[in-house]
Amino acid sequence: MVGAPSQFAEKFAELAADSYFFEAQAVVLSNMGQHKQALEIYVFKIKDYNKAEECVQSCLLRSLANVSRYCNHIHLTQDSAVASPIQSRRASITSDTEDATPSIYHTLLSLYLTPPQPHQPNWAPALDLLSKHGSRLPASSTLNLIPATLPVAELESYFRGRIRAANSIVNEAKVVSGLRKSEVVSAQAALLLGDGIPDGNGGRNRRVIVSEDRVCGVCHKRLGGSVIAVLPDNGVVHYGCVNRASGRSTGGMESLRVAQWRV
Prior knowledge:
Layout: H1 5-17, H2 22-31, H3 35-46, H4 49-77, H5 85-94, H6 96-100, H7 104-113, H8 123-133, H9 139-145, H10 156-193, E1 228-230, E2 236-238, H11 242-246, H12 252-255
Antiparallel strand pairs: 1-2
Helix pairs in contact: 2-3, 3-4, 3-7, 7-8, 8-10
């Protein structure tokens, strides 16, 4: 057992200096939310760039899980307007707010390209990170990290990835737009032709039989040869009784667009 706090600090410093515990330190720091310090251990001490990328991905997964739990909590506790998935995705990629906020990928890239002294820039893992995850990095701050002396050809995969990500958003928007148009067409067909179920909603194209003895559902007078209107529940009333039947003060044809006429 370590007696005094000073002895504990000295023992911890000895363990921290031992290369055998570097990865354990990185895991602990990452779980504590100190991601930059954890990445510094992977990049500068262990020099294992694959594990550095794995650390970034695990941090993102934890963040997404926390956001998902928070959104579920908000959804269960209050009513709020919910944006469509394509709107959410477009906002997450193109918004200026996110561009201004460095991500953990950006932190790893800055350690590669602008490391603290006495370390030198490490181009190989930086270009590999840009080629695989460039679309997740904020464009403005990412390009500011890249020196002007770097040939544009080295960034081909980075620009290709960003263009591919932008195109996927456009294509997804087209698919969503097509699905919404199809839904509108289906709704219009159901409104005009009905649902096709016996004794169901016949739509505007339905037919009703008005016999000589049939009376108005509002004033209870015979319909005879009067102008009539057919209600959504297939009830038949005088056109002048439509307002009382619907309980509205607007005109009959404005309040009941499914009305049919007879003289």
